[in-house]
Each structure stands twice: as structure tokens, then as C-alpha cells.
Amino acid sequence: MDASFADPDVITRLLDESRTWAFVGLNDRPERVVYEQAQLLQGRGKRIFPVHPSRAEVLGEPGYAALADLPEKVDVVGVYRRSEYAGAVIDQAVAAGAGAVWLPLGVVDEDAGRRALEAGLDVVMDRCPAIEWAKRH
């Protein structure tokens, strides 16, 4: 994988300076990794936006069916979809004006990551926010 998708400075900046995170794939199932990650970042002061077709309220926040439905631009879009679907989500994040995309462990789409970089977004790929937070704090 391209090292630019795991830049430690970008990771630290996104964890420390971001205020809003949209979690694509987040629903009301606490056993899922995306739920745990959203809960962790919410507990560290980030505002979260659940994005899932069910539009379920999650962790006290209203759900949205798509990134285009969010009431504001977000700093980071967490792409909690399988790799084969990640590119479409990344393209939607670019279109929605997000500042960055973060793909968790095991989710990789380098072509889409390059498109996002070319559009001016920061990209973190194949990294876990909880692990990266623990390394830095």
C-alpha cells in the first residue's frame, strides 16, 4: 500500500484537530466495529453523524441515509464498508466536501484514495482510529 495513506502527521492531525466525523455503515448494532469506533471518538469530543440506509439514531445522534443528506460538511468520513464498496463512498465524500476519509483495518482502495488526494482530501487507509489514538495519547 502507498505510504501516503498512512502518514503519521495526517493521522495525528485528524485525531487531534477534527471536530466532526461521519461514519458510513454505522447503525444501532453495538457489536460492530464501526459502533465501537464511533463511540470511542464521540467519547473524545468528536461529533458523529451515523450514515446508513436505515437512518437509525445511533449514540444519541440522528441517522442519515447518505453523505449528501448531512446537515453540514464534516471533517472526516469513516468508510466502514468492504473494500469493493469503498471507492463509491470515497467519491461521495469528495462530492459532499469532506476534509478527509479514513478507511479502517482491512479496507483498501488505492485508486479511490488517489482520487481523494487529488481532490484535496486527506486520506488514511487500513488504520484503526482506536489503535492510532492509543499510540499518540
UniProtKB/TrEMBL annotation:
InterPro entries hit by this protein: CoA-bd, NAD(P)-bd_dom_sf
- Leader peptide range in chain numbering: none
**Residue ranges of every copy of the CoA-binding domain listed in the record:** 14-107
Recorded protein name is CoA-binding protein
- Give the species: Actinomadura sediminis
